[in-house]
């Protein structure tokens, strides 16, 4: 079963979706939270409003994603290689004239699991181990 970004189906009648593919409860000592990552896919159609009660960082992989900052009225045209950060309290509207794909990381638990990863567990054999510090240092997921 494939689970990469090219296999994210859009729900019937919807022009954009997210697909969370990995989430952890962080071990940050001052303010533990979740760290979730996934892909965002959008095609031409109506604007998709979003209000943030978490932080998000988004990196555009292909196409174009337009982001209207509701507070300022400024539209940012993001293209491959562009990076955006959304603060708690941000209100935006996403759109595109063609289609766009981005990778994101957010500080929230999984909301919309990647449809091709539901029920699949992370392979513990994919974890790398730091021998000097005697701890896991990297988790590798093949999607």
Automatic annotation (TrEMBL):
What Pfam families is this protein classified in?
A: Cupin_3 (PF05899)
Domain (S)-ureidoglycine aminohydrolase cupin, chain residue ranges per copy: 49-92
Q: What's the name of the protein?
A: (S)-ureidoglycine aminohydrolase cupin domain-containing protein
- The organism encoding this protein is Neonectria punicea
